[in-house]
Specification:
Layout lengths: L3 H17 L11 H9 L26 H27 L9
Length: 102
Amino acid sequence: MISNKKFYIGALLVSLLLAGVVSFYASSNPDGLEKVAGKIGFLDTAKDHAIADGPLADYGVKGVDNERLSVGLSGVIGVLGTAGISVGLFYFLRKDKSKPSK
């Protein structure tokens, strides 16, 4: 039987591979909401949100000129950020706070 630690490390590595490499090959076609907005005719009324100029806007890293590297790096940052927040929440919300889980 595979240990929990090995499983989590494996899952993290697979997630990093998918986000860092495979994500570049995702479809560039518009998502469902954008497609419907275009069909109905209100796509032109869309406005940028408050953090549209942020460092990770548009599935890339601001300042990185290589598109493939920018998209991959953005995915890796997203996976690591999500994993870090999740581990922190799991740590602080666990039932038995007297000892760390195995």
